[in-house]
Design goal:
The complex is a heterodimer of chains A (321) and B (309). By secondary structure, chain A is α/β, with parallel strands linked by helices. Chain A folds into two domains: 2-222, Rossmann fold; 228-298, 2-Layer Sandwich (Alpha-Beta Plaits). In chain A, 36% of the residues lie in helices and 26% in strands. Chain A has helices at 40-47, 69-72, 91-101, 106-119, 135-146, 165-180, 192-198, 216-224, 241-253, 276-288, 303-310, and strands spanning 2-11, 14-24, 29-33, 55-60, 63-64, 76-79, 153-157, 184-189, 201-206, 209-215, 229-233, 258-263, 268-272, 293-298. Chain B has one domain (58-308). Chain B has twelve helices and no strands. The chains are: A alpha/beta (321), B mainly alpha (309). Chain A binds chain B through residues 35-37, 41, 45, 48-52, 69-70, 73-74, 76-78, 80, 82-89, 93, 97-98, 100-103, 142, 145, 318-319, and chain B through 10, 13-14, 17-18, 21-22, 91-94, 96-103, 298-299, 301, 305, 307-309. The complex binds adenosine-5'-diphosphate and magnesium ion. Adenosine-5'-diphosphate sits between chains A (11, 14, 16, 34, 36-42, 320) and B (304-305, 307-308).
């Protein structure tokens, strides 16, 4: 579906994207992760035909975005990272305007608008003025707008940035729906766990290069292996605290992926290298041994520490001279 | 054969909806009407229409006074509207989205220009009753009214295209507005300066030749020189008012200046002054629009994006 070959983009002397190669299959949801300035937006703008590449090529459905940018316009829908809306325009008129740019008019337009507003959960905002919508609603409206011509590839640049948790959740639902509709989607974000939840594969970008890419599980396992697990037990007072700790410690150390156990005031912190499935099995094992678990969670890791791990310590130097 | 429907430019259509809803628009319309009313009253007073003896024919003065006032109004208003058109899309960050749709950059530029024109037309329509006083009471020809409206449209198109062009090359709307005024004024001044230089060169050349023959220089010898002024966007407007108000036209003025030494070719040119200069300047405006379109298209898109993070 999307094929990026040796894509390089320079801004003057500054190398924003360096020899990027990427393949995204049909129906895949691909997540682009990387810190600010990694070159995600630049790559996406080239894919959408908004930016000329310095060298290399991008193929959408076999058509070169560099050589024939006009013919990929009907195949790609783009939601930019920052965008504004027009004043004094209602939601339906907003959709109609963009529809008319694709030559969609009349009753077709109405059907499409209704369907898309339903999809992004904005049906009740139909007659609102676009500039009165909340940030999250605008973002979802922009997704609906990008889908107006039924593109095969949807490119979303940081669709979650600046949204509150509720709006994030709603956006995620929309994207999941789209995924189940079989659209090929590329999403960028600088927060990995956020993407990991909805993407089938991800690529990690840094300083214009793709430093890791593949199935989410593989990358997550490789990079999140050492996230510690926090366990809080409920002490039913028959044993002393010391004994309870010893008990737990012994049980945990018997487990295959546990490297180290330490105790804080009220919880055990377990250095664990297993996958999500293995951590679930660990919990099951603890519970079946009669332990009373009141809290069990695995630390979420932010991208910064992931980068430190993958790039060996220099991952977060994003400011270029 | 494919059926071709006549479709309205989507951008024009949207802008019409938006501007018809803005309060600024109706306020401005009210201001214009107020201004025109004041002008009419001033002309009525100065022509003595409120005294015992009326001289209705002096009401004909309303025609050039209102006409020129409105031309000036259009010359200032249209650039203000168009100068923020494309830079406004940039500031609002909606241009990128437009560029991912199949609409051509030329259509974007044209849509912006035409929506400014639509606003102008609205002002023009509002002002017709005022101007009509000159026709009803002052005895002006009705064809002149039609011609005047065409002049408004023409001048709006020209200054609008300069505005769209500036809007495409400058990022900030305010800067674009200033640049539009600067470019507009330099085109006007430029045509006069070029004209003046050519005249003096011609005069000196003549003077030397005639001095040798013992005669004095008289009139323009190169009859093509006044044609330079055709590149002034207001050239057709000038001729239009001249023709409407007097029995003269640019042709007669040049003919006199040349002491009747005009040949057939130039005679044709000066007689067709209005259509020719309109044609030249409309071609120049289209060039401005085309340049704006090239400027916003991706190949030329060198705009610097903000560095984040
Ligand atoms: N128009 C531009 N001119 C110069 N440098 C740019 C331009 N656009 C982006 N950059 C630089 O290219 C790098 C990559 O930017 P970008 O693709 O926006 O990163 P991301 O989206 O991953 O945060 C950044 O360091 C940025 O400063
Ligand atoms: Mg970005």
């Amino acid at each position: 579906m999307l094929e990026i070959q040796n894509l390089t983009k320079r801004y003057g002397k500054f190398l924003a994207v360096n020899e990027l190669n990427l393949h995204v299959g049909k129906g895949e949801i691909f997540g682009f992760v990387g810190p600010n300035g990694a070159g995600k937006t630049t790559t996406m703008r080239v894919v959408c035909g908004l930016l000329k590449a310095t060298s290399g090529d991008v193929f959408v459905d076999g058509i070169s975005a560099i050589k024939s940018p006009s013919s990929i316009k009907r195949k790609v829908g783009y939601v930019p990272d920052f965008f504004g809306v027009y004043d004094n325009l209602k939601v339906t008129e907003y959709m109609e305007f963009y529809g008319s740019l694709y030559g969609i008019e009349g009753s077709d337009m109405e059907t499409i608008t209704d369907g898309l507003l339903e999809l992004v959960n904005l049906t009740d905002k139909k007659d609102f003025y676009v500039d009165t919508l909340s940030r999250g609603m605008k973002q979802r409206l922009c997704v609906a707008r990008a889908l107006i011509h039924d593109p095969e590839l949807l490119v979303l640049d940081e669709p979650n940035s600046g949204l509150d948790p509720r709006a994030r959740f709603e956006m995620k639902e929309v994207l999941k729906n789209l995924g189940s509709m079989g659209k090929t989607i590329i999403i960028s974000s600088h927060i990995l766990p956020e993407l990991a939840e909805m993407c089938s594969s991800i690529g990690i970008m840094e300083k214009g290069r793709l430093i890791a890419s593949g199935k989410v599980e593989e990358i997550m396992e490789k990079s999140f292996g050492s996230r510690p697990i926090h366990i809080k037990t409920f002490n039913d007072s028959q044993a002393s605290e010391e004994e309870a700790h010893d008990n737990l410690n012994r049980l945990l150390m018997e487990q295959p992926n546990v490297k180290r156990v330490s105790f804080t005031e009220d919880e055990a912190v377990v250095t664990f290298t297993g996958s999500e499935e293995e951590s679930a099995k660990l919990l099951k094992c603890l519970v079946s041994s009669g332990m009373l678990i009141s809290d069990f969670y695995r630390e979420k890791e932010d991208l910064e520490s992931l980068f430190l791990e993958i790039t060996g310590g220099d991952g977060n130097e994003e400011k270029e001279a | 054969m494919k059926k071709k429907k006549l479709k309205m430019n989507p951008i024009l259509k949207k802008e019409l909806v938006v501007s018809s809803r803005s309060i600024k628009m109706s306020m401005a319309l009210m201001c214009v009407c107020g201004m025109l009313t004041l002008i009419v009253i001033a002309v009525l007073f100065s022509s003595g229409s409120f005294r015992y003896s009326y001289d209705y024919s002096s009401l004909i003065m309303l025609f050039p006074v209102l006409g020129i006032a409105e031309c000036a109004l259009i010359s200032f208003m249209v650039p203000i509207i168009t100068a923020s058109s494309i830079s406004g899309e940039r500031e609002r960050q909606t241009l990128d989205i437009l560029l991912t749709t199949p609409i051509s950059t030329f259509s974007i530029a044209m849509g912006k220009l035409n929506s400014a024109m639509a606003v102008v037309l609205m002002y023009v329509v509002t002002s017709i009753p005022f101007i009509s006083i000159a026709f009803v009471l002052g005895g002006m020809k009705w064809t002149s009214l039609f011609g005047l409206i065409l002049m408004y449209i023409y001048i709006g198109f020209y200054v609008g295209s300069v505005g769209v062009f500036c809007s495409s090359i400058v990022k900030k709307s305010i800067a674009a507005t200033i640049l539009t005024v600067v470019i507009g004024c330099s085109i006007i001044a430029g045509s006069f300066i070029l004209y003046g230089i050519s005249l003096s060169v011609d005069y000196h050349a003549q003077a030397e030749a005639l001095l040798a023959a013992g005669k004095e220089a008289s009139g323009i010898s190169a009859t093509g020189i006044p044609a330079i002024l055709m590149f002034n966007p207001y050239a057709p407007v000038f001729d239009f008012f001249l023709r409407s108000l007097s029995s003269y036209s640019v042709y007669e003025l040049v003919d006199r200046a040349c002491n009747g030494k005009m040949n057939g070719f130039w005679e044709f040119i000066y007689k067709a002054w209005i259509p020719l200069s309109v044609l030249i300047n409309v071609a120049i405006s289209l060039l401005f629009v085309k340049c704006a379109a090239l400027k916003i298209s991706v190949t030329r898109n060198k705009k610097k994006r903000k560095v984040k993070g």
